[in-house]
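My main concern about presentation is that the manuscript never shows what a single data entry looks like. Each protein is reduced to its one-letter sequence and a matching series of backbone shape codes. For the editor and my fellow referees, an illustration may be useful. For illustration, here is how one protein appears when written out as sequence plus structure tokens:
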Amino acid sequence: MVKDDGEPAATSVEGATTFTKTFKRKATSLPWDRYLVRTLSIIGGLIIWYLCSVNHVSFIVSFENVPNPLVVGDQFIYLLGTGEFYTHIGVSLGRILISFGIASVLGVVVGILMGRSRIITDVMLPHIEILRPIPAVAWIPLAILMLPTEESSIIFITALGAFFPVVLSTLHGVEQTSEVYVRAARSLGSGKLEILWHVILPGALPSIMSGLAIGMGVAWFSLLAGEIISGQYGIGYFTWNAYSLVEYDNIVIGMLTIGGLGTTSTWLVKQASKPALRWQESER
């Protein structure tokens, strides 16, 4: 029964609101059973890989020369005891940090400028759209001709790959910021810098952070192409050198190492973005 004063109805509304907020908070956190499923999925993939390798399956794709996970694991343990393997990883991480830092700063700045100026968009966007589809490998000859050292060529190729996702995501985020908020801030006496800092950037942050996460993944992809230039160190060079020497186990280790480092660094970017996007959690 609903009383005339409406108190039970109000209580029901409050209860529904509380339930909705609680449900949304739970939905944002990943349950442990999903982690279990993902872990089992990886284990299942390793089992399939092992069975295909030991039985030399050759149907559409051939596993005749692919080492099984146990062989790769033994070689990986051996490499962990050598200093050279860590040197390859350290050099690649240094290149990624420099390249991603350059791409992030330039991408965010250029994306904001494009989002706030039609002239800059008309000048920059055609170049970006023409250069963006060019694969990293195709940049190698030109990078060698344009830049003075191998190291600068690798950083250029890696930064270029990460630049495009960052700049386009930033542009999209700025364009999606409601002009109503900008006009409201301007009517309250805010200057251009205040509007940029307090209105445009917060509104564009979700897209910017997504672009940074995608850019980190593309950076690792581009690094492999860039390190083909290098004749000394880098996990990409390690993988390419293993291919040249027909060391199948090291090829797989290099590939999985790049995948693991790329996944970890992308996760770190996402974790670093959470404090800046805390306002989204409060809205939920």
